[in-house]
Amino acid sequence: xxxxxxxxxxxxxxxxxxxxxxxxxxxxxxxxxxxxxxxxxxxxxxxxxxxxxxxxxxxxxxxxxxxxxxxxxxxxxxxxxxxxxxxxxxxxxxxxxxxxxxxxxxxxxxxxxxxxxxxxxxxxxxxxxxxxxxxxxxxxxxxxxxxxxxxxxxxxxxxxxxxxxxxxxxxxxxxxxxxxxxxxxxxxxxxxxxxxxxxxxxxxxxxxxxxxxxxxxxxxxxxxxxxxxxxxxxxxxxxxxxxxxxxxxxxxxxxxxxxxxxxxxxxxxxxxxxxxxxxxxxxxxxxxxxxxxxxxxxxxxxxxxxxxxxxxxxxxxxxxxxxxxxxxxxxxxx
Amino acid sequence: xxxxxxxxxxxxxxxxxxxxxxxxxxxxxxxxxxxxxxxxxxxxxxxxxxxxxxxxxxxxxxxxxxxxxxxxxxxxxxxxxxxxxxxxxxxxxxxxxxxxxxxxxxxxxxxxxxxxxxxxxxxxxxxxxxxxxxxxxxxxxxxxxxxxxxxxxxxxxxxxxxxxxxxxxxxxxxxxxxxxxxxxxxxxxxxxxxxxxxxxxxxxxxxxxxxxxxxxxxxxxxxxxxxxxxxxxxxxxxxxxxxxxxxxxxxxxxxxxxxxxxxxxxxxxxxxxxxxxxxxxxxxxxxxxxxxxxxxxxxxxxxxxxxxxxxxxxxxxxxxxxxxxxxxxxxxxxxxxxxxxxxxxxxxxxxxxxxx
Lengths: 334, 356
Prior knowledge:
The complex is a heterodimer.
Chain A: H1 15-19, H2 24-43, H3 50-75, H4 83-101, H5 105-130, H6 134-153, E1 175-176, E2 179-180, H7 181-199, H8 201-211, H9 213-218, H10 223-247, H11 260-270, H12 282-301, H13 308-333
Antiparallel strand pairs in A: 1-2
Helix pairs in contact in A: 2-12, 3-7, 3-8, 3-10, 3-11, 3-12, 4-5, 4-6, 4-10, 5-6, 5-10, 7-8, 8-10, 11-12, 11-13, 12-13
Chain B: H1 15-28, H2 30-50, H3 60-65, H4 67-85, H5 95-112, H6 117-141, H7 146-163, H8 173-176, E1 184-187, E2 190-194, H9 195-213, H10 216-226, H11 228-233, H12 238-264, H13 279-288, H14 300-320, H15 323-355
Helix pairs in contact in B: 1-15, 2-14, 4-9, 4-12, 4-13, 4-14, 5-6, 5-7, 5-12, 6-7, 6-12, 9-10, 10-12, 13-14, 13-15, 14-15
């Protein structure tokens, strides 16, 4: 996509423009979520209960966390399909360290972020320096990271990991004013990245690269640095997501994180980020994950076959992209 | 990387230029690279086998019996090749979901409704083509990016498949009888090869080769992937050509669905999606075979050699280590090969420009 959209590069200077920063897709998403919540709240006795909302928010927190980074990567015109395996590597390392070395919450989070960052930089450096298609590179690292996680996993099981990561987990200790800490963390990070991508020049560069990498380079953007930074961000957040996942059960399985990349990409796309790059917001991604969580929970509460949840996720992806394509066509027709 | 649209200069060249062009061919042509890798692989494992380092002999019989895993890999990779060559970010993430859904429907038709085999197989291919047509409609007509459209349909197909037959596999005696279709056949002078190599792989490979490299449709597809605007000005129906590519990918996945049911004597609701799934390996093999993700480049021969390389490498690894260790190393080999091929392309591309 090389279409210029100058209205999107304006800096919001007043409250009014801050409100207008909430874009079309996001308003639609908010509407759909409110409709679903009201409908399900009226239709079922349990949906709007505190515990169910907590469960929804907690269960989608890992997707939201990785989705924030994935938004940045997709905005630059890339993609990272290796995040599921990256999460597995982090979970195995952190699970083992807590079980064997009894490290505390702080060191565990720090180590997770470092491991995630390392994996992200691997992807970023290969993609930025060689110009090989991101999907090819991350398909390769998807397999390599999975091998790495199985290699560290070794034989036997990793279960009964001490509850060191409880504060970011799904238990009672992991809440603050009734909302899971993992969700607070996601919202905080999302807010920071949202401001960064909207206000900071280096954040705007991600959009410029996704719009037209060649033009961005000629305009003085350090394309390679910025691309590596995007993959670094998704790696770091995959690390945090790995901690949240360990905190919610204390077990690490050999297939942990399998297929997570597709869930994340689905949430990002439902949130209105263009897979072609150059357009998308973290706020939309957050709303997209809430919608996915709502649908999954609704299917359970309505006692439909649980496998149907993915069918609805698929339909929402198509609806989101379909409306986007139509809107784009109308904009061009004008 | 050479493409099919390159036109070789017909004029005679001086000797040193010819020598460097031979070197260039060896280094830049993916088929040459894959043949070299395949020879290294065979020699290395043969040496290990002779030195008695393996759990069982790595001989012609073993290689031939492993062709059973080569056939589905190749078919799905060819499907991916069609959609990727068509360009504009073409990719089909839904082949795993298609294999699951068509496979379980085949199970119903053949096991419960007692359809004759030929009808059930035709229905599987047609069903796969129909699911592929849904992708084609979304991508070629509605112009939704392929990555997203097939991600969505992959969710839809695999989710519908899982809700059928209460997620339980169908494995009646009639289905189990299908395994005879994948038995080995003895040919004079050759080790016994699985029947589907003759019955499915050979015709499919010939048809795919003809379609891509010898038919008007193939020329249109390469034109489309190389430069869509130019293709449109050349009066090529862009939407129809791309639609057909996705339809073909779906039909091939339908064929693989039948093959998988026969091979495992059971129609599982997650046949194409369990574990790592079938989609990622298929794309990996296609890319390893020289299909450029940007479209317009790729050959049937490359995909064939890549599928063969991956199959026999996996077979070799199985003999080298115990089961637990080897499934890990197969992941490593697949990822490593893909990255190696992509990096080799990158460095060789630079080198080739210098010696040109």
